[in-house]
């Protein structure tokens, strides 16, 4: 970037080598549409942040840290590598976990779940898509649920295809996925609290 | 009682420990924190590594792309390091363009790469004057507890050892590059620079691998970068109190020992990795 003296200068332009490669279109493999990828969740791992959470689902990795409170700036800063499918859903869950880890009082944890619609000829809604499935999808949906209160916190979708009632089914499938994810997150917070209790000075 | 004293007189609190030749976290003056390294952590990058020095955590991701070589050096490629210190690693950093510390660290890493010749830029050239590799090395600090320079240098070295470049041939007829996604080869790593940082207390005491607190209380800091042949690649002393020649020699000897420890750790990790 001309005039950007804050970063080390590289070439003016560069292209990823994949553009020059023989195009191999990998189609995502068929699978059970209701399967959730195994999730690894860990809270309380950054020493400098008030609360933090790390969530890994398949290839998606999200790290979230909560700092503050500070004057009306908003106490949350997310960050970390993502990419691997359902990044938004993972980010929502990580953010809620980090806030819980920081001890911020909330009505309930927010759990996020992603879905994607496979293209014609047989459009089916798949739960928790991988990056490859998201790339080949005709539509995508992210739902966020507060499992104990059983209230939907948010729904975000885009794309085209399928009837309106199929979208309703998709939302229901997503909410079910959130419920299934909840026990893992609960366990993660309990473990983090125990760890913090053990490490606290007498 | 101790916690109160620590808040009111942090330097005195530290001096009590230093008199007994140890530090509040139980380490000796010349002892490093537990170092862990994880190579190949990010699947979307061409090479990656995660390094932890105690609490300080740095990840490095390397992405290789094509670019035209610079006009003044048509047979060389580029290595572009960038250090990011986001607000999540410590409350002292704000979101936005790189702050002063991030810029200093980026320049330090660039100097280490240049001086140590860890990679020959000529190796990155595919076709002189037309096509070369550019390695974007992104270092992100996830947790800042002092000694960021050592962690970044180690993460960069480990990530570069993990990088695999695709095989590229230039088609004679079309003069376009052809990439073979199936064939990859590792980079040719010339030297292994390892950084050792010290904090200077009261003009005489040198503490190796300072935590964020120790860096804050110190009168100055010093970083020595050595390669495996005992050659000095880089010396970074940003102001602070002075050091005499004898102390500097002590630092360099400690840096040589540290290099052996780090090299052994990295060799173990690489040996234990399954081939891609």
TrEMBL record, chain A:
InterPro entries linked = ExoRNase_PH_dom1, ExoRNase_PH_dom2_sf, PNPase/RNase_PH_dom_sf, Ribosomal_Su5_D2-typ_SF, RNase_PH
In terms of Pfam families, this protein maps to: RNase_PH
Gene Ontology, cellular component aspect: cytoplasmic exosome (RNase complex); cytosol; nuclear exosome (RNase complex); nucleolus
Entry's Gene Ontology molecular function annotations? RNA binding
Q: Can you say where in the cell this protein is located?
A: Cytoplasm; Nucleus
The record's comment on protein family reads:
Belongs to the RNase PH family.
Q: What is this protein called?
A: Exosome component 6
* Organism field: Jaculus jaculus
Report which gene this protein is encoded by: Exosc6
Automatic annotation (TrEMBL), chain B:
The residue stretches assigned to a coiled coil in this entry are: none
Cite the GO molecular-function annotations of the record.
mRNA 3'-UTR AU-rich region binding
Please name the CDD domains in this protein's record: RNase_PH_RRP43
Say where the protein is mainly found: cytoplasm
Q: Which domain of life is it from?
A: Eukaryota
- Indicate where this protein resides in the cell: Cytoplasm; Nucleus, Nucleolus
Q: The Exoribonuclease phosphorolytic domain covers which part of the protein?
A: 31-164, 193-256
What the entry lists under InterPro entries is as follows: ExoRNase_PH_dom1, ExoRNase_PH_dom2, ExoRNase_PH_dom2_sf, Exosome_comp_Rrp42_subfam, PNPase/RNase_PH_dom_sf, Ribosomal_Su5_D2-typ_SF, Rrp43
Keyword DNA-binding found: no
**Keyword annotations:** Acetylation, Cytoplasm, Exosome, Nucleus, RNA-binding, rRNA processing
A Gene Ontology annotation in the biological process aspect, one of them, is: nuclear mRNA surveillance
- GO cellular component term of the entry, any: cytoplasmic exosome (RNase complex)
Carries keyword Repeat?
no
Looking up PANTHER family in the UniProt record yields:
EXOSOME COMPLEX COMPONENT RRP43, EXOSOME COMPLEX EXONUCLEASE RIBOSOMAL RNA PROCESSING PROTEIN
Name the family the entry cites: Belongs to the RNase PH family.
Protein name stated in the entry: Exosome complex component RRP43
């Amino acid at each position: 970037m001309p005039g950007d003296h804050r970063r080390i200068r590289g070439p003016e332009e560069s292209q990823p080598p994949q553009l020059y490669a023989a195009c191999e279109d990998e189609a995502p493999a068929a699978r059970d549409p209701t399967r959730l990828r195994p999730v690894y969740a860990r809270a309380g791992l950054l020493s400098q942040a008030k609360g933090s959470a790390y969530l890994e689902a398949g290839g998606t990795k999200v790290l979230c840290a909560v700092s503050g409170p500070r004057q009306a700036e908003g106490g949350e800063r997310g960050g970390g590598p993502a990419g691997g499918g359902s990044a938004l859903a993972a980010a929502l869950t990580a953010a809620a976990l980090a806030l819980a880890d920081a001890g911020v009082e909330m009505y309930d944890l927010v759990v996020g779940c992603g879905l994607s619609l496979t293209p014609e000829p047989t459009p089916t809604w798949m739960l928790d898509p991988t990056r490859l499935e998201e790339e080949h999808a005709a539509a995508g949906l992210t739902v966020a649920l507060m499992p104990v209160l059983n209230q939907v916190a948010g729904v975000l979708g885009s794309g085209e295809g399928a009837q309106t009632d199929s979208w309703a089914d998709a939302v229901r499938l997503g909410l079910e996925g959130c419920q299934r994810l909840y026990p893992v997150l609960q366990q993660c917070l309990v473990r983090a609290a125990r760890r913090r209790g053990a490490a606290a000075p007498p | 009682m101790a916690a109160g004293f620590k808040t009111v007189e942090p330097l005195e609190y530290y001096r009590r420990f230093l008199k007994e030749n140890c530090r509040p976290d139980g380490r000796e003056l010349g002892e490093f924190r537990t170092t862990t390294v994880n190579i190949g952590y990010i699947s979307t990058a061409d090479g990656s590594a995660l390094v932890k020095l105690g609490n300080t955590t740095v990840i490095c991701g390397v992405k290789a792309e094509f670019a035209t070589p610079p006009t003044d050096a048509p047979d060389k490629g580029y290595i572009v390091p960038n250090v990011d210190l986001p607000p999540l690693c410590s409350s002292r950093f704000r979101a936005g363009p790189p702050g002063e510390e991030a810029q200093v660290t980026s320049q330090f890493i660039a100097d280490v790469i240049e001086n140590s010749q860890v990679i020959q830029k000529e190796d990155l050239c595919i076709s002189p004057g037309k096509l070369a590799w550019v390695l974007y090395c992104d270092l992100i600090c996830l947790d800042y507890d002092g000694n960021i320079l050592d962690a970044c240098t180690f993460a960069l070295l480990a990530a570069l050892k993990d990088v695999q470049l695709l095989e590229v041939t230039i088609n004679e007829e079309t003069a376009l590059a052809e990439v073979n996604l199936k064939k990859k080869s590792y980079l040719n790593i010339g030297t292994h620079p390892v950084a050792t940082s010290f904090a200077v207390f009261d003009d005489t005491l040198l503490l190796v691998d300072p935590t964020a607190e120790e860096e804050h209380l110190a009168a100055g800091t010093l970083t020595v970068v050595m390669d495996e042949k005992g050659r000095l690649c880089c010396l970074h002393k940003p102001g602070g109190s002075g050091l005499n020649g004898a102390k500097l020699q002590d630092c360099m000897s400690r840096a040589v020992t540290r290099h052996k420890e780090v090299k052994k750790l990295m060799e173990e990790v690489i040996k234990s990795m399954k081939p891609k």
